[in-house]
Amino acid sequence: MKLAFAEVTGWGKCVPPAIMTNHDLATFMETSDEWIRTRTGIEERRVSAVGTSAMATVAARNALAAADLDPAEIDLIIVGTCTPDEIIPNVASKVQQDLGAKNAAAFDLNAACSSFFYAMHFATSSIRIGMHKKVLIIGAERLTRILDWTKRESAVLFGDGAGAMVLEATDKEVGLLSSKVSCDADARDVLSLDFGMSFDRYQFDGVMPFNFEGQEIFKRAVKGMSAAVEGVFKETGLAVDDIDVLIPHQANKRLIDFLAKMCKVPEEKTMINIQKYGNTSSATLPIAYCEALETGMVKPGDSIISAVFGGGLTCGAGLIVWGDRVTPLQNNQMELEQGADQSALDLILPLFEGSKKAWEARGK
Ligand code: ACO
């Protein structure tokens, strides 16, 4: 059997129009722009007025435009998300329906913030062994709906958005050439949201406990991502001098700086956009790729290292060798039409008030 490679031929993003700055947050919670910027690098984030699937569909349309593909040519859609609109049916089937991608199998994948990279790993494998030819992978999240807005230690970190890529079979040796994915399940509880089938819905009082142990996550993320990156170096024989660009998960600027140091990549070759969007979980990676391409950071044939981590604790890293084309074939800058008339505070303050009341009713 001849193994193909999986080239990234399309890329697109969707960032909702409503912007919540650190200063906006400081109007209703005890925090400051200075604290958030110096600890995390975040200056603002986006808040979506629409569900995850609507953002995912816009990002997917942009990726298909960049690849100049008809949706009917796609044979698999994978949506990485931990914030689906519904439990059943999945987000991927809504994207399939909205795009008219009627020949695609469609499923969601949840590895928290690592979901998009996990999707890339498995989509690439399925193309390499010949099971699929043209795959659409998406990372999309509406995290602002599941955050507890009374908890400043986690609420300031996250935002909404979506990004997508089209992967196509090719004989050229490009795309994800080496990847490592893992899960440190002993740390399952350091990042968790208890809202699912274990929940007693008849007793639900509106409190969704979001457990977030920031320092423990930080330590485990450093360990997991370092091991994954080292695994990729070992497998490929790549040396730090061979890396052209670093495009990491955007969870914290200090974690990105750590990775850049480890890979010896200078700041101008490290994709950083956390200041604009915060942590959009599975969407950070594809949005970062889009912006690295839009700004000319990625050149034809570049060797790119990506590293991710997320709840689980899941981790991953990979070497992506870019193909010849760094520009979209068609305009891939379509935007969400809905939600431009609502401010971020209009969208978030009712959630903040609701959470405050629910905690008060519990006597806390
Ligand atoms: N504004 C102001 N003060 C705050 C805020 C806030 N938003 N949040 C916490 N504080 C206070 C705390 O109450 C504490 O006060 P105290 O010293 O009086 O008790 C103080 O700031 C320090 O709190 P720490 O939690 O120790 O702050 P730390 O320096 O660890 O930074 C952070 C927190 C940024 C979350 C850090 O732990 C971190 O980077 N963690 C990595 C994990 C991460 O970034 N996760 C992102 C998402 S997870 C993912 O992507 C999978």
UniProtKB/TrEMBL annotation:
Q: Which domain of life is it from?
A: Bacteria
Q: Where is the region ACP-binding?
A: 250-254
Q: Which InterPro entries match?
A: ACP_syn_III_C, ACP_syn_III_N, FabH, Thiolase-like
Recorded metabolic or biological pathway in which this protein acts: Lipid metabolism; fatty acid biosynthesis
Its recorded reaction(s) are:
malonyl-[ACP] + acetyl-CoA + H(+) = 3-oxobutanoyl-[ACP] + CO2 + CoA
Name the enzyme group at the top EC level: transferase
Record-level GO BP terms:
fatty acid biosynthetic process
| Keyword line | Acyltransferase, Cytoplasm, Fatty acid biosynthesis, Fatty acid metabolism, Lipid biosynthesis, Lipid metabolism, Multifunctional enzyme, Transferase
Q: Which HAMAP family match?
A: FabH
Full protein name: Beta-ketoacyl-[acyl-carrier-protein] synthase III
Origin species, per record, is Aliidiomarina sanyensis
